Amino acid sequence: MTTPATDRLAIARAAYNDVPLYDPKRTPVKIDLTDNTNLWGVPPNAERAIRDFAHSTITRYPTLYGSELKRALAEHAGVTPDMIVTGCGSDDILDSAMRAFGNENDLVAATDPTFAMVPIFAKMNTLRSILVTELPQHDVDADALLATGAKLLYVCSPNNPTGALVARRTLEKLIDNAPGVLLVDEAYVEFAGVSNIDLLKRSNRVLLIRTMSKAFGLAGLRIGYAIGAPELVAEVEKSRGPYKVNALAEQVAITALRSDVQWVEEHIQLAIEVRDRLTIELLKLDLDPMPSSANFVCVPVKHCVAVGLAMREKGVGVRPFPNLPRVGDCLRISVGPWPMVDQCVKALAGAMKKVGKK
Ligand SMILES: *Cc1c(COP(=O)(O)O)cnc(C)c1O
After folding, report:
1. Which of 8, 109, 270, 302 is most buried, judging by how many CB atoms fall within 10 Å of its CB?
2. 219 C-alpha to center of ligand 1: Å?
3. Per the omega criterion (within 30 degrees of 0), is the bond before 113 cis?
């Protein structure tokens, strides 16, 4: 996933010397189970809103900070609009939060394994980052994270790429003892059947980071948000800057939140059913899939890169993670309509046989 920074301009920012472009090797493939988006499609009313979008609106700027979207998100989450900040994807929120709370060289500590963008965003904001290996049973090592003394702590629940949920007690411990800000990435929270919103009462230094890219099926429109104490989100909003959510995205997101929630919930249920069915099929292949609270399954598979390539030759894309801490070689498989996942299981069985014979 690294792009060597060769022949950089002498005037380029030195701190970016080893900042790679994000490259998860997502080449087109017939059945793409690599990015955990909603493979059932765009919610129906959102789709209609895209079709009916008034072209005249494109000539004008969107709202400064997405005020109407904030109201819709607040209603959806059961909080007040002043507790919401929106962004160009939750990546933008993460980036803005690091800028909002980190001074140069401050430390960001994240659990490991987790979302690969965290150290990259840290570097882009001239922060240092440290990865703290998770506990053997895949919960976050709260004591070790706190021992870093980092100004920003990052955990992801359910975690990408393992699918593991951070235990409630662990989150409480982090909240009660964090010296700075706790970022909880909840990109997959809709699939977990839990809510951490009430934890916001415990501290005004917790940011729950969410997205409409996964359960809501709107990844291409880039809509992320975070929920936290008004004084906390105000700082993120400041560092984010105006006009970050475009006019089409804002309108479609509002429509989805106001009239597609039932569709979204039905498809969350479908995703959970397929996830459980996939888990059973993986067990039948003598594999040991990790319990998942998200819309993907992480399964340890030896020689995962070679297996992933062999699956691609059969038209199925999954994401290999070689040598992950506490997990080893594994594949992360997004769930979608069963026929796609069924094809994936068949491709995996064939690929393991092929690679095993080498
Ligand atoms: C997909 C993902 C994101 C990025 O979401 P966007 O809102 O599309 O930027 C953030 N965090 C995690 C853990 C993810 O898996």
Report:
1. 109
2. 9
3. yes
27 and 154: one domain? no
241-267 pLDDT per residue, tens? 999 999 999 999 999 999 999 999 999
Residues with CB under 6 A from ligand 1: 36, 89-91, 115, 156, 160, 185, 187, 211, 213, 219, 224
Structure token digits, residue 358: 């080498």
| Those residues with Cβ within 8 angstroms of residue 177's Cβ, 6 or more apart along the chain or in another chain | 142, 146
pTM to 2 decimal places: 0.96
CATH no. for residue 186?
3.40.640.10
Q: Residue with structure tokens 């491709």? A: 347
pLDDT tens column, 11-43: 998 888 888 888 877 778 999 999 999 999 999
- Cβ pair 95, 124 in contact under 8 A: yes
Q: How far is CA 132 from each of CA 1, 95, 176, 226, 291, rounded to the nearest angstrom?
A: 21, 20, 19, 24, 21
What's the domain count of the chain?
A: 2
Name the residue among 292, 298, 356, 293 with its Cα closest to residue 322: 298
Tokens of 308: 């992933």
